[in-house]
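Teaching assistant here, posting this on the class forum so everyone can see the example we discussed in section. The complex has two components, and the goal was to see what a joint structure prediction looks like when all of them are supplied at once.
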Amino acid sequence: MNVLEIRNLTKKFGDFIAVDNMSLNVREGEIFGFLGANGAGKSTTINMISSLLRSTKGEIVILGRSIASDVQFAKMNIGIVPQDIAIYEDMTAYENVSFFAGLYGLRGAHLKERTEEALNFVGLGDKQKSLPKNFSGGMKRRLNIACAIAHRPKLIIMDEPTVGIDPQSRNYILNSVKQLNRMGCTIIYTSHYMEEVEEICTRIAIVDHGKIIAEGTKEQLKAIVTDTKNVWIEVRGGDHLNINSVKHIQGVLSVRLDDHMLKISSKGEINNLNLILQQLIQDRIEIRSIEEQAPNLETVFLTLTGRNLRD
Amino acid sequence: MNVYNIALREIKSSLREPRTMLFMLAFPIVLMLILGTALSNVFSNFTPVDNIRLLYSNESGQPQLTQYWESFSQEMGRQGIDIAPIASGQVGREQVREGQYTAYVELKADGMQLYGSSKQSIESNIAQGMLTAFADRYNLAAAAFRSDPSKAEAILANAGAVTGGEFIRETSLNPNKSPGSIDYYAIAMTTMIALYAAISGSYLFRGERTRHTAIRLMAAPIAKGELFAGKVIGCTLINFLSVLVVVLFSKFVFQADWGSHYGIVFLVLGTEVVLAVSLGLGVGYLVQGESPRAVVMIFTQIASFVGGAYFPVESDGSFMGVLTYLSPLRWANTALIGAIYTDDMSAAWQTIGLNVGIAAAFLLISIVIMRKREVL
């Protein structure tokens, strides 16, 4: 059963097309990774799924009901974990969760039980009466999640839930996502951290320029780039590098320089490493190390979009 | 229920913000105390006459006049007015110029000459009035003496007693009570702080956007109308509560006079808070970016200044005078002073009508813009 169906969804802001005729299905029980660089149309899509934005064209169906015809039903069944922490600093952890859960119709003992349950789930059971302004970044992120799950939504949308937190809190949150999934929640997960997406997502869509350019399991996505090979060359003096001259070498698909790491994707059947090294030597670039990368989500993303996820 | 929850959260949040509470409560109370004390003389309509000192010289050489003057002096002395003869070597007019005496009188055979102090004009005028009364009576006695000396004796003997010993008769031209300085500033500061609710009004939805909680509120299964109503009601209630505390504090601590028509007083103040919140909300929607707060701050400051928050203002037909009529503070102050001091409710009802009407207009503007917008 599809928890979410997106059909020919388009969103325009004036002449700018943020989402371009997008179609997508998310099945029940999935942790669905939604990847895209900044400005790719990912947040706009999420905002339309959450009923925060109206679509220009197309349809969104949640649990079999169109948002356009029954927005209340859609809202009742969705939980949002926004990228920016969305809590009231002057209200206790308990009051925050209780207030937002109350907006979903929970009352009395039921509300109390669900609030405590959500706080315990994110490990803030002993901080119920504390004000979030005294919390660490990780604790605030966990409270941000608790506010989204107390009403037990069927679909949880998590937009960069681990930004700017310590590894321990990140692990806690990732485990929480997996546990929520085991409890029956379907999750749409966006992140700039590829390793997170690789670790927890069962299916992934890559968005670029408002369109889904690839969709499938990790293995299926990696298979897309088996006809390419990726070489990472650690260099010094990269300021002198003429990237265009490398791009024009036969077989090169994409080139980018991240700090001191030159990341080159080339067609698999062409052996151009000697030509690349010659060009670097000609440009007086000092080569520190050379490493061939096995296909991973990052190389897939780079190959498909020509951009890094953090761009 | 959602409206109640949202309003309650708004109230809790404001109560937990110490800077806001300090601003809404301590600021008007301290200003009330400072301005009420410092400007108490401006509001005083009481001029004591017991510091009138009159210097005189008697060169008339008329025993009857001298006798009558002595009686008059004694009577004035009983009323707290000091009348002293000029000492040898003293120059009367110099004494007055130096501020030693209120006036100097020369009694001569052909009449009286009075030199009053321009520095003490009120006291000097009182002295002139007393001496005029004295001269009238003496002239009457002199005229009587020519026809019937016994009647003249009676007139002179009863000098200062015929009319109950009153050479000064107090007749108030303003029988209605009027506010003292603390009374005035209790009203002015309260209406000013009610108007300051516009600041929290301007931040009502913008605050949700900056906190990012707008996303959660918009994603929740509640109608925009519920959200709007809850926030406006909560903001209005907490601001009205602040106004109520300021009123009670001024009444019981500063003994400010709030009259006996509490219903109309709180109705004026309540509708002013509604007006202020709506105004702030409207500006928050009409003005983009970070400017709404600045616009509201400037408006409230100007409205407070021309509305009489810091000192009473009179409308004199000038540009500033006309401007005072545009200040909601002026409307509220006029309404409250009328209701409290003259039992006149007409200005109060006009103000309530204006407040409600303008508030409705701003609320309508906000609702229309909110419905059009996809975000809060």
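For the discussion questions: Chain B has two domains: 2-44+180-372, 53-157. The beta strands of chain B are 53-58, 82-85, 103-108, 111-116. Think about how each of these relates to the inputs above.
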